[in-house]
From TrEMBL:
Pfam families: BPD_transp_1
Main subcellular localisation: membrane
Protein name: Multiple sugar transport system permease protein
Keyword terms: Cell membrane, Membrane, Sugar transport, Transmembrane, Transmembrane helix, Transport
Organism: Streptomyces indicus
Limits of the ABC transmembrane type-1 domain: 125-317
Amino acid sequence: MAETAHTVRTTERPDAVEQTRKVTPPPAHRRRKRRRAAWADGHTRTVVSPLELKSRWGTRIYWAVLAGVLTVFTLVFLFPLYWMATSAMKSSDEIAQVPPTLWPENPDFSVFTDAWELFDIGTLLKNTLFYAIGAWLFALAVDVTAAYALSKLRPLFGNVILGAMLATLMIPPIVVMIPAYITATDVPIFGWHLLNSPWAIWFPVAANGFNIFLLKRFFDSIPDEILEAAEIDGVPPWRVLVSIILPISRPILGVVSIFTIVMVFKDFLWPLLVLPDSEKMTISVGLSQTAGAVPQNQVMAGLVIASIPMIIVFFFFQRSIMAGLTAGSLKG
C-alpha cells in the first residue's frame, strides 16, 4: 500500500488495475495540534506553549504579568527605605499618627544635620570605614592564598580541608558566638586580649569559607597550561599568584571585596560584644546605643545617613557583582 497526503493506491492482484481513492484531510484543529507537537519535540516544554505566547493576546498577557510582578517586588523592597526616609522628615506626633501619612505634611530637612551631630555620625563612619578597609585587606590576604593553594597547589587532604571550611557555613553564627567571644578575650597560646581592638573584627571576617569557595571555583576555571608554562620558565608559585592569577581574577576579587565591606558595615551583634568602648563603636552599634534617648524621627534620620554609603557602593559596583558571581561558572 502506498500512501500520500491526499491519495492512496491499493493493488489487490498483481495484474489488477490500481485504484485511486480520495482521502479526507484531518480537521484544522488536529493539524494545529500536530504542528505544535512537532515543534515542541525540538524545544523545551513550558506551562504556556511558545505558539500561544507569541500570539497577540499571549504577548499582551505576558508583558502585563511581568510588569505586575516586577512592580510588586520593587515596592516590597523599596518601601522600607521610602518609609524610613519620609519618617525622618516627620515630627514625632506625625510618626505616631493613625492612620499614618505616606508623605510628611511639613517636611523638615534640618533633622538630618541634628542627627549627624547628636549621634556623632562622623566618628562612627570613620571607625566603620577603618574596620572595613582593614577587614578587606586582611580577608583578601587570607582567602586568596587559601583558595590558590586548594585550587592550584593541591595540598594533601585538600578536599577534606575545603569540606571542613564549607561545613562551617552550615553552623548558625549564634551557636559559635560565645566560643568566639571567649577566644577574643583570651586568645589561646598567645594570650592576646582583643576586646576594643580592630583585630577582633578582622580575624573573624578573614576566616570566611564562602569567600574561599568562590575564589577557588574561579581559580579552577583558569587553565593549568598557563601555570605549567610559567613553571617551565622557572617562575615561583608566589610570583604566579601575583603576576598571573590576580590580574585575571579581578571580577571575583571585586565581588569578595564588596561582600567583605558590606559585612562589616551591616554587622551588629559581634561589634556590640567586642567593641564596648563608645569611641570605637561601629555605626550600627553607635546608633542603637543612643536610639532610646532621642526622638524617633532623629533615629530614622541617622539610619538614612548610615544607609547612604552602602547604597552608593551598590550603584557603582552592581555590574561587578553580577559579573563576578557568574565569572568562572563555565570552564573553557
